[in-house]
Structures are given as C-alpha cells and as structure tokens.
C-alpha cells in the first residue's frame, strides 16, 4: 500500500516533527535526531527529559520505517552509527522541515556538490560542457577555497566531488581535498586521467579521496583521442586508471561519453575497463552545453541509444545477481532507471545516476540492507537529482542548479548555502515535479526517471517540459 499520498495531507504535522528533530537540544548541544539515533543504538532513553520525550514519541515511527524493509534492529543500529548516514539523514529531516513530505524529497542543502575546482584543463575535449581550457573567470585563491570548504562542511554537505576542467592542474588540490576530508565530507574526484601519475594518486589517497572517476571514450587510441582532441591522451589515461587501481581507492570508475564515432566500441570499452580493474562504468551522453553544443550532431539515434542502454543494463544486472563483473550506470539519461525497473519488475534498477542500492562500495559496508532501503524508498529520491539533492559549483564559488547549467544562483563566499537552496525562485520552480508537462508529464515513471531537467531547459527553454533525449516515450500503463 502506498501511504505517501495520505501522509502528505498532514504536511504541517510532519514539518513540525522534522523541525523538532533537526533542532539542536539546548541541554545536549546536538540535534535531537542524533540523540534519538544514539538512544536507539544503546537501547537507553536520553537523560535529557526533552530528548527522552522526543525519542519515545518517534520510536514507533522508526520501527515502522525500518519494518517496511524488514530491517533488523541490529542492522538499523549499524546504519545509525555511520557518520555519513547520520549527516545525510539529518539533511533529509531538515529538508522535510522546509518543504514538507514531497516526491522527490529535497534536502535542506545538497547532499552532493560537484565543484569545478578549476576551469583550466590540459586537454581540449570536443564535448566539454564547461568549455574548459584557459580559465575565463577569476578562480578562488587557495585561502578562499579553504574558506568555502569550511562553509560547505558547516552547512552539512555529505559528498564533495572535485571536478573541472582538470582538477589536477591546480597544485593546491591536495590541500583542498585534505581540508574537505577533515571537515567531514566524503571526497571524490573526476579527472581525464592523463595527470594521474603514481605520485599524484598517492597524494590524493593520502589527502582523503575515496573514489576516482576517469573519462575513457573508446578502446582504441584514435577513438578516445578524437573526442579528447589530443593525440596520445589514450595511453596516458589508461596508465592513469592503472595507477588508481593499484593505489586501491574504494572505487575507480570509468566514464564513456557515447556518440556516433565510438558506439561500436561500447562493449570493447567496458571490457577494457574490466581488464584494468575498474569497479564501475558510466555511460554518458552528449550534453548541449559549452563545446558540447557544437558537436551535438554526433549524438546517437534513439534506436542506438536503447541498444546501448540495454547492453549496459545486462552488465549491471549480471553484476548485481552474480556478484561478478563491472557495474554499469548511466549519466544524463535518467530513463536508464526506467529501463531497469521495467526489465526487473522493480527489483534491480538504478535509482539515480550514483545510487542503486546495489552499489559495491555501500554493500561492502552495510550488506544488502542498503538495497532494501534504497529500492523501497526510491520514489523519494529517484530520477534527476538537480535541485533536489545535488548541485554544481563554479571555480569562482557560484552555486549552479547542476554542473552543465550556466545559471548562477549565488556565491557561497557571500551567501548562505541553505538560504539559496531553500529560497531561490528557480530551484523552487524546478522542484515542481508534479507539474511536469510534455512527454515527461504524461509518463508514469516520473518518480523513477522524470527526465533530465537541464536538457529540457536547454532545448525547450523550460525546466519542467519533457526530456527530448528520451528514446522510449511516455509510459501510460
């Protein structure tokens, strides 16, 4: 039974409950949600009378939420003990206090920010949605970058991805990563891989990077080098991947941007990634932003896209069901989640670009408990996460709705992240998923897919219209 429509009708009540849980207790000095978690872990009610009353009041709700996924008390206690889970759950609860119960559920601040740490790059990729190369704007100094990181940590950000441009062209990348790690954020990096020398990857690991993502756009040098617009980049990228795998990051990911000149090498590229020891493979599409607008005619047909997505889903399904092989995801193609949902009858699918519940990194930490939770509550955070749990950040410190979107919402050295996130008019408009129009508005998979909101805007001029890149069309059954 779907109880969400019923629960949503009493949103003033849920907002008040969430506000009570997210507020720091004046006596205990920590958010009451943390007191509730600590008491559930120990089995003892808090000494503080107010926190004790809150704990006893919400205890039935906790049992109900975990009971819906058949999670044992011991497993729930393990989840509640994890620092990143605690921070993210507090963010969700604070989001409910601002927005009420919604689907998808916006958090109080982004869970994930992808930071174009610099716009400078040692390559000149044809498809770059950042138009990276020589920096075209003033970038933050090291001191300013560290100050911004402090503000992100204090705001409650969980995951910070250093991207670009090529983040390794800034010599202070290691200091910035270490500072973010010390501030309690899980740190990842996205790179073209050509500068991932053995020395560089050791420094990144030491600084606190847990996950590395490297672009691999074919299984032959001429194919990869074509899109990267740099002869010889393929061999350097492959060596960079090898260095990362040898260093032993929690995850090493390869990303391939699909287009007409490399689609015949999709299987070969996945196989190469597996041979190199990569944990996860992302299939990206061309984005109509930056230099990507100039090569959009290289995009594949809808039939080719469906075939490509079916192939990577087969690999994903095999990995989930057998525990072997590489896990394949997509990026910029939220309809990949729909494909998986349909093929598996709602049991094995990606909930967002970065999460499925079957992610090896989380399974190793929490077992299949994470799968139960993610799959059961997928409608709460499925599909495009722009403006919901994820945002972009420029090299100058400006918040973006998502990385490719050249729309500056406010500078985080001058303005408060939560204030922008909660009150910005554009973000407020983007979140009205029940008002989607066009093909997405007629589709029954809005909670699992919902289309890429930026592409809808870039092509149609409206964030809430249909995603023109969807190869399937609306499902009404």
Report on this structure.
This protein is of the alpha/beta class and 477 residues long. The protein folds into 2 domains: 4-99, no CATH class; 112-380, Aldolase class I (TIM Barrel, Alpha-Beta Barrel), CATH 3.20.20.70. Helix content is 44%, strand content 11%. The protein has 20 helices and 10 strands. It has a 10-stranded mixed sheet. Helix 9 links the parallel strand 3 and strand 4. Helix 2 (11-22) crosses helix 6, helix 3 packs across helix 5 and helix 7 (142-155) packs parallel to helix 8. It is globular, with a radius of gyration of 22 Å. The chain starts with a helix and ends in a 17-residue tail after the last helix.
Q: How would you sum up this structure in a few lines?
A:
With 477 residues, this protein is of the alpha/beta class.
List the helices and strands and how they pair.
Blueprint: H1 4-8, H2 11-22, H3 32-42, H4 49-67, H5 73-81, H6 83-99, E1 112-118, H7 142-155, E2 159-164, H8 173-182, E3 186-191, H9 198-207, E4 209-215, H10 221-228, H11 233-247, E5 251-258, H12 266-276, E6 280-285, H13 302-322, E7 327-331, H14 335-344, H15 360-366, H16 369-376, E8 390-393, E9 398-400, E10 410-411, H17 417-423, H18 425-430, H19 438-441, H20 453-460
Parallel strand pairs: 1-2, 1-8, 2-3, 3-4, 4-5, 5-6, 6-7
Antiparallel strand pairs: 8-9, 9-10
Helix pairs in contact: 2-6, 3-4, 3-5, 7-8, 8-9, 9-11
